């Protein structure tokens, strides 16, 4: 694979942070960028985030993974119960940002983007999921619960039988630091609670971080280059 393999953690509508990372890296045409999901809810600008991701498709190879918040939005839009629950999990901020009262009023272009998201992505050395996995099963046999909902705080999986390194989001690291277990790296560093949005070059280990206002973090000199 030519170019870099870059994962981006849970964005949650923080477009300024995403924009700062895209420019700081900078992302180019040969790069593959994997979004780990949760593009909407909680933050102030879910529409802007999705627009930026759509535009990013013309700048690199984008692989968007579906997060549980993205899934909730699609389910509620499709008529499934849980509208009030979704509002409490950050859906209210999403509707406010769109200036509407129900997900069925969100522009079709943005719904189509969310519907295009995949459940996982894997390469020869890594695999990428939103939340977690069962270590003894191939990715195509994992359930939606493991892939999108299970918290590492409830169950921390062991190394995957394939030997590949897992890159995940979903479980917010309120320290603002990447959780690195060697065989698993969680890069949801809690932008929505005042910490950072994280991007990682998974081959080199290099990390970029930006806060909700788009200010880049000065990394420790001992951090990977």
Spatial order of the strands forming the largest sheet? 3-2-1-9-10
Number of helices: 6
The profile of the biggest β sheet is:
5 strands, mixed
Q: Round the mean pLDDT to the nearest integer and report it.
A: 96
Helix proportion range: 25-40%
The low-confidence parts are none
Strand proportion? 15-25%
Structural class: alpha/beta
State the oligomer. single chain
Q: Please provide the count of β strands.
A: 10
Radius of gyration: 16 Å
Overall form: globular
List keywords for this structure.
single chain, alpha/beta, five-stranded mixed β-sheet, 27% helix, globular
List the helices and strands and how they pair.
Elements: E1 5-8, H1 15-24, E2 32-35, H2 46-56, E3 61-64, H3 68-77, H4 83-98, H5 108-115, E4 120-122, E5 126-129, H6 144-149, E6 165-168, E7 179-180, E8 184-186, E9 197-201, E10 207-210
Parallel strand pairs: 1-2, 2-3, 5-6, 6-8
Antiparallel strand pairs: 1-9, 4-5, 7-8, 9-10
Q: What does this 3D model show about the protein?
A:
By secondary structure, the chain is of the alpha/beta class. It is built from six helices and ten strands, in the order E-H-E-H-E-H-H-H-E-E-H-E-E-E-E-E. The strands form two sheets. It has a five-stranded mixed sheet, with helices on one face. Strand 4 (120-122) and strand 5 (126-129) form a beta hairpin. Helix 3 (68-77) packs across helix 4 (83-98). It is globular, with a radius of gyration of 16 Å. The chain starts with a strand and ends in a 15-residue tail after the last strand. 42% of the residues are buried. The mean pLDDT is 96.
């Amino acid at each position: 694979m030519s170019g870099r393999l870059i994962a981006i953690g849970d964005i949650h509508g923080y477009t300024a942070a995403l924009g700062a990372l895209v420019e700081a890296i900078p992302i180019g045409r040969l790069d593959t960028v994997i979004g780990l999901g949760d593009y909407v809810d909680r933050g102030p600008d879910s529409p802007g985030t999705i627009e930026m991701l759509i535009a990013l498709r013309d700048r690199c190879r984008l692989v968007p993974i579906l997060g549980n918040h993205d899934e909730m939005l699609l389910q509620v839009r499709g008529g499934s119960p849980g509208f009030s629950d979704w509002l409490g999990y950050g859906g209210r901020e999403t509707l406010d940002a769109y200036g509407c009262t129900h997900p069925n009023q969100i522009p079709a272009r943005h719904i189509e983007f969310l519907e295009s998201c995949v459940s996982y992505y894997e390469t020869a050395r890594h695999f990428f999921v939103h939340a977690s996995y069962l270590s003894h099963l191939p990715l195509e046999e994992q359930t939606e619960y493991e892939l999108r909902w299970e918290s590492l705080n409830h169950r921390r999986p062991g190394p995957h039988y394939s030997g590949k390194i897992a890159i995940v989001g979903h479980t917010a690291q309120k320290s603002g630091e990447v959780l690195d277990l060697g065989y698993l790296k969680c890069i949801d560093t809690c932008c929505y609670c005042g910490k950072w949005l994280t991007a990682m070059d998974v081959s080199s280990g290099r990390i970029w971080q930006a806060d909700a206002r788009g200010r880049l973090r000065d990394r420790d000199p001992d951090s990977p280059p």
